[in-house]
Amino acid sequence: MSPQDRRGNSGRPGGKGGKPTGRPSSGRSGAPRSAPSRAARAKPAPEPTVDVHDPDGVRLQKVLATAGLGSRRACEDLIASGRVTVDGQPVRELGVRVDPGKAIIHVDGMRVQLDTTIITIALNKPKGVVSTMHDPEGRPTIAQFVANREERLFHVGRLDAETEGIILLTNDGELANRLSHPSHGVSKTYLAHLDGRVPPSLGGRLLRGIELEDGPVKLEKFNIVQVTPQASLVEVSLHEGRNRIVRRLFEEVGYPVTALVRTSIGPIRLGDLKPGRTRVLSKTEVGSLMTQAGM
Which residues carry out catalysis? Predict the structure, then answer.
């Protein structure tokens, strides 16, 4: 490559050296050049945004601090760094005020729970307990584990009586409905103890999907945890919430479930929570659930 080539636009096209003008050639020798109009020189106007400021509201940093996002100063840093949106609009100004009862706020893409009266609880449902707040047959219900709560709680989905594991209860009706509906794609994970030694090929079959009497079903994930000549332990994930869906799925392929534990709902894991015990989800956990549910 010649020195002229390496200079690129450092000289005039066809010139003999000299300083660059920074102006492109008109392509016509000696042609008069007209100054560009003011409109042509102007930068493109930014896309209009919705004004989220509510003069009668509360300062955004105070709302975030009250919601448990950190100190007032830490919340100011969140705003200034562009990590906060209000009603879908990015906010960087510290003087913005919002109505906590109406504003939809996200931090780093995660919904912030502003209503301090909302509560969501994780319960490790024991075996032999039905997933209702009242049972006309007098069987043990999940209500006994939250009897000390004053809130009116809804259970998010169900587990059959013989299945153990995590079930959520909340007084947020919209959250409960969205998490229960398969269209929002909230995944549930289970550990299933199966009768018989499952072959590795079974996973591919279940991931592709099989037909049950009430329609097709397919797994999102399938992992063989442990096998013996007589039994298998597998971990599976799916979005379905139909009645006894995991048990019916494995019954259909010839490996009946002998024990079943749900270990997670979306990002919320059972962890080391003991059967019959509960814990209140953190604001961050609730925010992640709301985000997954499209709220």
Answer: 160
